[in-house]
Design brief:
Blueprint lengths: L6 E9 L2 H4 L4 E6 L6 H16 L5 E5 L7 H9 L5 E4 L1 H7 L15 H21 L2 E11 L1 E4 L6 H5 L2 E5 L3 H9 L3 E5 L4 H7 L4 E4 L5 E5 H8 L9 E5 L16 E9 L2 E10 L7 E4 L9 E4 L4 E9 L1
Parallel strand pairs: 2-3, 2-4, 7-8
Antiparallel strand pairs: 1-4, 1-5, 6-9, 10-11, 12-13, 13-16, 14-15
Helix pairs in contact: 3-4
């Protein structure tokens, strides 16, 4: 049952002075989208296009997964030049201009064709509003329709009103809107969502269906299954990413050996110089699959090094 049909939108924005502030033409882009997600891959592809189009003069450095802070923090960092660009949801966009709030009105749009037509008509005005405040709209992205994910089954709106619903911290208008309709909003930073769900600080999360890996405690599983985990297990690891659909980086290592044979009568000497990881690759060998540190590198190839050896035969 779709209880909420607001749009989860992503927009790529850039402060007007960003490139002038960027050090060595490195554009720092912040986003909440998870590392390795389809949106992250699209941003990396865009960065590769920028590098190709400028013959390597412009590099896009992406900070995914909220490592630079929540979206209001990112907008503030953009204004002072610490971050040069961002892929923002409606929360970040409304931090710049309230007119973007129209895309978050529940049940306001009924289909993608309707939504796209509205965006086409409004885009020139939205761009002008952003530019008047020192930002440039580069592109739109869409994450899908927002649904409610709850810790307990919800079948009616009245049942939803009994739950504690996540609302983005700093969005006072949204908090008042929820309260006016009889709901129980709890304002938190997006980076605090997971611990808040685990501790019961919130019970419901309006969000598009994102993929994630998570170690789920028995107390949380009991609410879904109606029983404890088998065998007295305290938790279970849920692999939401389908097996065989995501792989780590390809590992390429070039090792070289230079050898010289020296003959002295009946004696023979072999002098060798070995160079390991000649290209000095830093490819990831192992990475974390735990939710809180997902895909964080745990080991990489040993840096380039050389070894000199000799062997004497007689």
């Amino acid at each position: 049952m779709r209880l909420l049909a607001a749009l989860f939108a992503l927009a790529l924005v850039l402060p007007v002075e960003a490139l002038a502030q960027a050090s060595g033409n490195v554009v720092k882009l912040a986003t909440l989208v998870p590392d390795g997600s389809v949106w992250d891959k699209a941003l990396k592809s865009m960065g590769a296009d920028w590098s190709t189009a400028t013959q390597g003069r412009v590099t896009l450095r992406i900070y995914p997964g909220g490592v630079t802070g929540d979206e209001p923090d990112v907008v503030r960092k953009m204004r002072i030049g610490q971050i040069h660009a961002a892929a923002l949801t409606l929360t970040g966009l409304t931090e710049i201009d309230e007119s973007f709030r129209v895309f978050g009105i529940p049940m306001f749009f009924s289909s993608y064709p309707e939504l796209f037509q509205v965006i086409d008509r409004m885009e020139p005005e939205l761009k002008k509003r952003l530019e008047a405040k020192g930002f440039v709209l580069l592109n739109w992205g869409h994450g899908g329709w927002v649904h409610f994910f709850t810790r307990t089954p919800v079948r009616t709106v009245d049942e939803l009103k009994k739950l504690k619903i996540f609302v983005w911290a700093g969005d006072d208008i949204a908090v008042q809107m929820w309260k006016a309709q009889g709901f129980n909003p709890v304002a938190l930073a997006a980076t605090d969502i997971l611990p808040a769900l685990q501790t019961g600080m919130i019970d419901a999360l309006p969000s598009p269906p994102l993929a994630a890996n998570l170690v789920v405690p028995n107390a949380t599983v009991r609410q879904s299954l109606g029983r404890d985990l088998a065998g007295g297990a305290q938790n279970i690891t849920v692999n939401i990413v389908d097996p065989g659909t995501m792989y780590g980086d390809r590992l390429n290592q070039l090792d070289l050996r230079f050898s010289k044979l020296l003959n002295w009568g009946r004696r023979r000497t072999s002098v060798n110089v070995d160079v390991y990881n000649a290209l000095n690759s830093n490819a990831v060998q192992t990475e974390s699959n735990v939710y809180s540190t997902w895909r964080r590198p745990q080991s990489i190839l040993v840096p380039r090094f050389a070894k000199i050896s000799a062997q004497l035969d007689f």
